[in-house]
From TrEMBL:
Gene3D superfamilies: 2.40.30.170, 2.40.420.20, 2.40.50.100, Helix hairpin bin. This is HlyD family secretion protein. The chain crosses the membrane at residues 21-40. One of its GO terms (cellular component) is cell envelope. Belongs to the membrane fusion protein (MFP) (TC 8.A.1) family. Keywords: Coiled coil, Membrane, Transmembrane, Transmembrane helix. Residues 362-412 form the YknX-like C-terminal permuted SH3-like domain. It comes from the Bacteria. Residues 112-171 form a coiled coil. It is found in: Cell envelope. It comes from Roseateles asaccharophilus. InterPro entries: RND_pump_MFP, UPF0194_transport, YknX-like_C.
């Protein structure tokens, strides 16, 4: 019979810490299970998880919504006169760019020998026509005197013939002369009458002829006088003067340069009427209107203004608009082309539901992700007007809601996404 080893076995006592470890393991498993059970409602239908650090969150608020256009503008003159060369010639500048000038001050001269020579020729022709007019007037007076003398002689001949007829008639009645003498006296009287009538008619014709001749010479003189006046005006225009108080702006030609007719010479800027010109995007330009209030700032100061003009032309997707400073708020010591900040108020509304503007508004704006209990839920939304930093909420959200305004592209269109802290 083979003996077993029971006689050699020795019972061992259980370690003291075994129960404690078992209890700790069971408790940990229960905690993990409870945590997983609490997350099941959130992760039941969530399509993945995105870190909060990758997102931009904004809160929907109820308050004022200000729509404006902001940008950089440059100072321009509302009234800027450009002087052109009235005639070709050599230019002599009497002012330099940046010089302050007064109205009527000499700015430049243009030397035109051709115009001066033509004026001298036409002036000489004017003097000649004036002399011819005086000669024509003298000749007219002489011819009028000669015509009056002929008329007076014809009248005297008529009176003599009439007296001779009376004498011959009395002598014939007294028998002292023959009847033929009476007939001859009567014929002489008739002839003298015809001569007188012709002399009177010739006098009227001669007067009219002399009057027309003198009038033609006078009209020629007047025409030449107007020509000389026009040349004198052209010569006077060669002396260029400032059209208004202001400052000499840009010079387009150099000193002593030969300029062509109608060439641009220089500009004179009226510094008392400055405006600020800004470029506005075409989308905002449709809402700009004359008289809209604006604000101009620079050098630590602010000035009020209003839109004075909006260009009808679109250049590179932008429209030029000008703001005129208000009379009570005109700045001082501004310079042409100086850069300033400009802000134009388009609209202001009170008690508007709005949220900070982000990429969600530029990517359609029909859905947003609302953040609730660590989960971003995709919800429909309807947006309204937009400003530079806010967008109006018409429906789909309420005040206090938190939405994802940037970074929602990481959700890849999922309906629910868990947001990891």
């Amino acid at each position: 019979m083979i003996r077993d080893t029971s006689a050699q076995d020795r019972p061992l006592s259980a370690p003291r810490h075994g129960k404690r470890r078992l209890l700790l393991a069971c408790g940990g498993a229960l905690l993990i299970g409870f945590a997983a059970w609490s997350l099941l409602p959130r992760m039941g239908s969530a399509a993945g998880s995105v870190s909060l650090s990758r997102l931009s969150i904004a809160t929907v608020e109820l308050g004022p919504l200000v729509r404006d256009v902001a940008g950089e503008g440059r100072v321009v003159a509302a009234m800027s006169s450009t002087l052109f060369a009235p005639q070709a010639g050599a230019l002599v500048l009497e002012a330099r760019a940046g010089d302050a000038v007064r109205k009527g001050q000499l700015l430049a001269r243009i030397s035109s020998p051709e115009l001066q020579a033509r004026l001298a020729q036409e002036q000489s022709q004017l003097d000649a026509l004036r002399t011819e007019l005086m000669r024509a007037e003298v000749e007219a007076r002489q011819q009028n005197a000669s015509q009056r003398s002929s008329l007076e002689n014809a009248r005297l001949d008529l009176q003599t013939a009439q007296n001779n007829l009376e004498r011959q008639t009395k002598a014939f009645e007294a028998g002292a002369t023959a009847g033929i003498q009476v007939e001859q006296a009567r014929d002489a009287l008739a002839k003298a009458g015809i001569t007188l009538r012709h002399a009177e008619g010739n006098e009227h014709l001669r007067k009219d002829s002399l009057m027309f001749e003198v009038q033609a010479r006078r009209q020629a003189l007047q025409r030449q006088h107007l020509l000389v006046q026009d040349l004198q005006r052209q010569l006077a225009e060669l002396t260029l003067r400032a059209p208004a108080d202001g400052q000499v702006g840009q010079l387009f030609v150099a000193e002593r340069a030969q300029v062509a007719r109608d060439a641009k010479l220089l500009t004179v800027i009226d510094l008392s009427a400055l405006e600020v010109q800004m470029q506005v995007a075409e989308s905002f330009a449709r809402e700009l209107a004359l008289g809209m209030p604006g604000e101009v700032s620079g050098n630590g100061q602010r000035w009020r203004g209003r839109i004075s003009s909006v260009s009808p032309e679109v250049v590179n997707g932008e429209v030029a608009a000008r703001l005129r400073f208000e009379d009570a708020d005109k700045p001082e010591q501004l310079r042409q082309n100086q850069r300033l900040s400009v802000r134009v108020l388009l609209d202001r509304r009170e008690n508007v539901l709005s949220v900070a503007r982000g990429r969600f508004a530029d990517e359609g704006g029909h859905h947003v992700y609302v953040l609730r209990d660590g989960v971003a839920q995709r919800s429909p939304v309807r947006l309204g007007v937009r400003s530079l930093d806010k967008v109006e909420i018409l429906s789909g959200l309420k005040a206090g809601d938190q939405i994802v305004i940037n970074g929602a592209d990481a959700f890849q269109g999922a309906e629910r996404v868990t947001i990891a802290q």
